[in-house]
Amino acid sequence: MKNTLRVERAIKNITQADLAAAIGVSRQTINTIESNKYVPSTVLALKIARVFDKPVEAIFELEDGD
Amino acid sequence: MRSRLLFPHRFKLLGWLLALPGFVLGYQVVYNDYNIPGFELVLREKSSLFLSASENFTNELALTMVITGLLLIAFSKQKTEDELTAKMRLNALYWSILVNFCWYGVLVVFAVINTIVHITSIGSIVSFASDNLTFTVYNLFMPLVILIVRFYYLLYKNKEEYEIKPLRFLSYKPYRILGIILSVGLFTGLIIANLAGVDENKLSVAYLLPLVMLLWVYSKEKEEDEYINTIRLNAMQIAVYVNYAILLIGNFAVYGLGFLYVLVFNLATIPTIFLIVFHYRLYKIRQEDSERSRLNLNLL
């Protein structure tokens, strides 16, 4: 799965720590998601999408290997 | 979302305050025969060979402190606990049980070699582990220690991100089938032998039971998916909790030789409880599923 989280964060100009605090996870988790090393749960993905006011598919995308 | 069955963050400090002094006290009790003076209760009218009249509770106290402390350290929430740290903890648990029993397996293999051939290094390792029941005593808390070490290593290895790797399980054929057949076979064989009055010293093949159960525990179902994987890891966590609850109760309820049996059974309790919990949950899900599909057919 790939995500455009880093880009979205840059657009909205918030740090990983801010985003983490907004949804109640740790900063390292956000970093791990951005590095594509962890696939968040559906609830977490929806929370992230809500922070950026976008649909989930705009941020998270299925890859061919999934 | 299923509850994670974790203690609040505050309990972690309490865990350290219990475990470290507990280890020191335990070391003194086991290796230096230390007993807190006066920390005894007169339990029985007079002394017999294995049970003295007054029982000193220092060793029970040490064990309780160590186990409770380690449980609190391992299963208390992080300061920022989220789904990833919970997942890492469960992964570390999978790992720690596996490592603990692999080490046990190595010792069993060494013990078997030792009876056939004489190699001094192997012989000394085996005698170190079985004298004074050293291994069974360490087995009391080693899974928790390995869990804590592994979990914190993964957490603090990289300051920027957490490390999570997918867990691997053995395939259904042949491992699960083999594991089930061997476990059930060995278990029934042991019960029958016990009832038939076979001498206990000849039943040392019983020591293989935890290892064959391990094959069963660490192999996949016929149809495997992420839900079953979640159930499996939660069942492991419950198995560890129940195992240590039993141990703590046994600690105070059983004394002398009886406690030796508790120690030996403890080698097999984690896999056993896991299998019971896991398969019960699977059974319930499959039952609900078949109930639902039956009702659907009726409505159509």
From TrEMBL, chain A:
Coiled-coil residue windows: none
Domain HTH cro/C1-type: start-end pairs: 5-59
CDD domains: HTH_XRE
UniProt-listed Gene3D superfamilies: lambda repressor-like DNA-binding domains (1.10.260.40)
Domain of life assignment: Bacteria
Entry GO MF terms: DNA binding
Keyword tRNA processing appears in the UniProt entry: no
Keyword set, alphabetical order: DNA-binding
The protein's name in its UniProt record: Transcriptional regulator
UniProtKB/TrEMBL annotation, chain B:
Designated name of the protein: Uncharacterized protein
Listed transmembrane segments: 57-76, 97-117, 137-156, 177-197, 203-219, 231-253, 259-283
Organism in which the protein naturally occurs: Mucilaginibacter terrigena
Source organism, top-level taxon: Bacteria
Keywords per UniProt: Membrane, Transmembrane, Transmembrane helix
